[in-house]
Amino acid sequence: MNKKKLAAIISLLFMSPAWAIEPFTVKDIRVEGIQRTEAGTVFSYLPVKVGDTMNDEHATEAIRALYSTGFFKDVRLEVEQGVLIVLVRERPSIASIQVNGVKDFSKDQLKDNMKYAGLAEARIFDKGALEKAVHNLKQQYVARGKYGVKVKTNVIEMDRNRVTIMFDVVEGEVSKIKQINIVGNKAYPEDELQGMMKLSTPDWLSWISKNDQYSKQKLSADLETLRSFYMDKGYLEFNIDSTQISISPDKNDIYITVNITEGEKYTISKVTLTGNTPVPMEELDALVQVKAGDDFSRQALSETSKLVGERLASEGYAFANVNAVPDVNKEKHEVSFNFMVDPGQRVYVRHINISGNTKTRDEVVRREFRQVEGSWFDVKKIKQSKRRIDRLGFFSEVNIETPAVQGAADQMDINVAVTEKSTGSFSVGAGVSSGEGIVLMGGVSQSNVFGSGNYLSTQLNTSKINQNISLSYTNPYFTDEGMSRGFDFYKRNTNALNSVLSQYNSSTKGLGMRFGVPINEEEYITYGLSIEKSNIGLTALSPLSYVNHVKNFGNVNTTVLGTAGWTRDSRDSALYTTEGTVQRAYVEIALPVMDMRYYKLNYEHQWFYPISSDFTLMVNGLAGAAAGYSNKQVPFFKNFYGGGVGSVRGYELNSLGPRDLNNLSLGGLRRFAGSIEVMTPMPGIKDKSVRISGFIDGGAVYGPGDLAGTAGMRYSAGVAATWLSPMGPLKFSYGMPLNKQPQDKLQAFQFTMGSMF
């Protein structure tokens, strides 16, 4: 409230008897001075009506009521022959708000924010609201690190009791952290402690991470990181005494000082477990992560309580309490812990409630659950169920809560909240090479047809080499036990005349059926049968091995293929994998009911390991081998190829391995490839779906017909980025060969992109 208004009200409330009037009966009420406000509005706020007796108390109350509306800046009462005259002077209305000098925000956005402060066009002007709007505007810039922002306002009076409000903003530069000081450290050097903090002085990544801009939330997180580090290294009495944040007079530089007391290092003298538990105490003892003689570690204590609690929860004791009670000996700098275990009451699951699945049917989620209603609660089955639902790939988030049932100490519910994501995709891929130019691929797939969990996809490849059309359908729960069944139809046309491949063309049609049988929660086997028909065409430049194949088997070949595979998948997520492994083994055999006699073996192993909360290591390896049997050879169009995405990035697609006399790829009967990749979320971006990585690839294809310099392993290194965008997966990579040979063909930049529906 401004001082003038307050003074006016006080003067009205405490004025001398000069204000006193003889009580009279109000014959009429007249309002004068209003321009925008309706007379009826004034009458509605007046506590006096015609016929009332007017006195000093009522007059004071009337003036107070009209002032409190906020419509008027002056109110007076007069009396004329029994008529009460209300004289008012209205506050001005806001005709327009103009904002100048703003670049970081849109003007419309700022005006919308001003409305929350009470400042908007057509509203009554209030200086208090103006001051609040200025404060809020400055805070928005401070949140972006611009502490030197200056905001000036100018209120311009206009006709008809209106005003225009001008905001002149000088945004200034972003304030940067100039220095971070840690005072009181003795056991660890200051630079090591600073390296643990997110906040830092400017470096070459600051433009992305923004870690050189002060944030109260980031500092709080950094202080907790320091606390956890010391507490895990034995410093039981570690304390952060104070933090000081100062800014330079020009508002450009920020200085942070953290004062700490390390205290003495403590060791653990004794660890015991007590309590009446349904699990043998010897089994719980094996879960204790600390022992006598170890340095004190808060993390190890927390992990012990977690493991013991989870072990009890796997027996149905969902609300078990495990508390570590310390006994500190400050003289010897030792501490002993007694883990007091209270299992509580055993509980069972009443209901499993699913929400958020607007498209996916409940049964699709429920059939992945290993915890069932009516059985004892098992935390391991809950985690396993969440992992299975997450691996479906239908949901961007899967959250599970286990609230207790009100009024029933032995019951609990499981609430599953999912956030659905687009499961249909239209994708295209492209690569740039000196031989083929731009290679395009496209496909349409729906992994959750009509919310049933069934998979349907079509693929179309329109490159110069391959024109592929395929249709696949899979029902993952063909039987209630989880057996899957799928059908595939494909047509592949290969034209190698303008590619890195040896000269030939082919047209292949195939139709097949396959089944999948789960072995356990992480493993399953597949088997299938298909028939395909191939039509081969050669040119004058085709190598002799191709010509011999056509002589022996003819231009048209029909093959009956038997397939079998094994997969083990223990990843924590199919979308944002941070740990776990995927192993796949696959065999393809040409059955001896037709002329072809060959087999192909493939094995792939991916291993994910969380280096830290932000970095994930992925090691990938694949191997393949093929051979003929019954004195037959592997058809040349079934050879392995290497190079490009999925093999060795930096080399042209299918360019590695044996070559013919024209330096064109023949493919081979053995293939090896592997990569080491370190992935991390994009700095400065909270969305975990954006990842960047650095990689080293290696691989080779072996077989007869190698030209000098074409055989042997090839290596490359580079960087990659992946974004699981709302439109679909976007992947980019740039690879540089590490040991290229003169005959090698290179393809540095590769990318794939897609859109979701």
3D architecture notes:
Helices cover about 20% and strands about 40% of the residues. It has 13 helices and 35 strands. The radius of gyration is 38 Å and the shape is extended. With about 750 residues, the protein is of the alpha+beta class. The strands form eight sheets. A 16-stranded antiparallel β-barrel has the order 18-19-20-21-22-23-24-25-26-27-28-30-31-32-33-35. It has six domains: about 5-90, Roll (Ubiquitin-like (UB roll)); about 95-170, membrane protein fhac (Ubiquitin-like (UB roll)); about 175-260, membrane protein fhac (Ubiquitin-like (UB roll), Roll), CATH 3.10.20; about 265-340, membrane protein fhac (Ubiquitin-like (UB roll)), CATH 3.10.20.310; about 350-420, membrane protein fhac (Ubiquitin-like (UB roll)), CATH 3.10.20.310; about 425-755, Porin, CATH 2.40.160.50.
In short:
With 757 residues, this protein is an alpha+beta fold. It has 13 helices and 35 strands.
Low-confidence stretches: 1-19, 431-437
**Residues in helices, as a percent range:** 10-25%
CATH fourth-tier homologous superfamily of the largest domain = membrane protein fhac: a member of the omp85/tpsb transporter family
Biggest β-sheet description: 16 strands, antiparallel, barrel
Taking all Cα atoms into account, the compactness measure Rg is 38 Å
The end-to-end distance, rounded to whole angstroms, is: 55 Å
